[in-house]
TrEMBL record:
One of its GO terms (molecular function) is hydrolase activity, acting on carbon-nitrogen (but not peptide) bonds. It comes from Chryseolinea soli. Residues 1-21 form the signal peptide. This is Amidohydrolase-related domain-containing protein. Keywords: Signal.
Length: 458
């Protein structure tokens, strides 16, 4: 090798080694790592733990006796505190820097975002920010919106359904564009489901079903991994005549008919179709995304006004695209009486699912129906607890369940090799989910984020 090339190679190696040496190693020492594995059914917390963070990743995590503190590391004593993974919101949006700050302040370190006419546009320029993941919706057909019962765009008509070749092309293109979650939507027919699932698996895209022309049973059998909205994933319990109309008109009068139907059931918890559906979801390890913070939470006796959370002070109400809550009460400004009347039945439906052992993952629907970034994830957790999940199971729904149901193995757990998205809490979240707000230290991709600075209006 010529001397000049050898010299340049040596210089490059020296510079690379210097860069590695200058990387700060952060160590959390003395806290308790909360176990969120096995859907929150495992209780193997690690007390007096050591967590080593380097290059945005967890280099080691375990008991102090098993993890060595590297020389020169910055050591933070977190004795008496509790270490959990950063929280995940799998259905929301970041419209501006205030939204990003609010997510982070409330401990949400990963946000799955979608653009639509209710939520507006994503702002990709925000910094600091949770890890941003793209969700796209797939209708499986060229369709047109239609008015139903005098309500504009309440339903849809199919112009032409896509072939398998078109589905493969579309989803491969989405994968190349960075889409990591696909909302399999109303116009998808049963015959298309296998091709959609296969294409998503090939592209490592997680699937959420919000279905109309396909039943939820058909989607389960095809391999869709999760479903969103209580009022959607319980639709298979409807009488066939109502289910058929609801399939193409999910927003108009048929939606009202759904609410009226479930409200009219005297013992909805004993409904044979609902029980059958819950066992189907349980046995196939489906993840449910209730988005109960949108409709149900404001009507609960234990509900608090989200606008009273400290971080809400930096959010401009005008940025909320769809039905912001009244700032003085935290209640809907123009509530739908039919929808409000159906809340107890909606809650009862999810109680049935929870009792049967169906798994949940957390998504808030932010910012539709006045839900607020970060804040509403805690409201969602309160609803999961109300459904009957233990605090640990609810915490798992916001963290490690994504690893088990969506195969997201780089986040969701404080474990060697995962991304260093970590919350250090002053109090134990297993004893109360409210303790998830008592964040002593916020670490996003290995970096400590100053929560006080997040409170400053952008």
């Amino acid at each position: 090798m010529p001397a000049k090339k050898l010299y340049l190679l040596l210089i490059t190696l020296v510079l690379c080694q210097c860069a590695i040496a200058q990387q700060e190693v952060l160590v959390l020492k003395g806290g308790t790592i909360i176990d969120v594995t096995d859907f929150g059914n495992s209780e193997r917390d690690i007390s007096n733990a050591t967590v080593v963070i380097e290059g945005g990743r967890i280099k080691a995590a375990g008991s102090a006796s098993s993890v060595k503190v590297p020389k020169g590391a910055k050591v933070i004593d977190v004795s008496g505190k509790y270490i959990v993974p950063g929280l995940i919101d799998c259905f929301g949006i970041i419209n501006d820097q205030a939204y990003a700050n609010a997510y982070l302040y409330m401990g949400v370190t990963t946000a799955v975002m979608t653009e639509d006419n209710r939520r507006g546009k994503i702002d990709w320029t925000v910094n600091p920010s949770p890890h941003k993941i793209i969700l796209d919706a797939y209708w499986g057909a060229k369709s047109k919106r239609v008015s139903v019962g005098g309500v504009e765009n309440a339903g849809f008509e199919i112009v032409r359904s896509w072939s398998k070749e078109e589905i493969d092309h579309d989803i491969d293109s989405l994968g190349k564009a960075g889409v990591k979650v696909l909302l399999v939507h109303y116009a998808v027919v049963p015959a298309q489901l296998p091709a959609i699932v296969a294409a998503c698996k090939r592209n490592k895209i997680a699937t959420i079903g919000e279905l109309g022309l396909s039943s939820y049973r058909e989607a389960v059998q095809a391999g869709i991994q999760s479903f969103v909205h209580t009022s959607r994933y319980s639709a298979d319990m409807l009488p066939d005549s109502l289910r058929k109309v609801y399939s193409t008109s999910p927003f108009g009068p048929p939606a009202r008919a759904y609410y009226e139907y479930i409200t009219g059931q005297k013992n909805i918890a004993d409904d044979p179709k609902l029980l059958e559906l819950s066992k189907l979801y349980r046995d196939h390890r489906i993840g449910l995304i209730s988005t109960a913070g949108m409709i149900q939470y404001p009507e609960m006796e234990f509900a608090t006004n989200p606008w009273l959370e400290p971080i809400a002070s930096i959010i401009d109400e005008r940025t909320i695209e769809f039905e912001p809550l009244d700032k003085s009460t935290g209640k809907p400004k123009n509530p739908s009486p039919v929808r409000q009347h159906a809340v107890p039945a909606l809650v009862e439906i999810d109680k049935v699912f929870a009792k049967q052992g169906v798994r949940y993952i957390t998504g808030t629907g932010t910012d539709a129906f006045g839900t607020l970034p970060g804040i509403s994830l805690h409201n969602e957790l309160a609803m999961l607890s109300h459904f009957g999940l233990t605090n640990r199971q609810a915490l798992a729904a916001a963290t490690h369940n994504f690893s088990l149901l969506w195969e997201w193995t780089s986040i969701g757990k404080v474990e060697t090799g995962r991304d260093a998205n970590i919350l250090v809490l002053d109090q134990n979240p297993v004893t109360s989910l409210k303790h998830l707000k008592a964040i002593s230290l916020l670490i996003v991709e290995g970096k400590i984020v100053d929560r006080n600075k997040l409170m400053q209006k952008p």
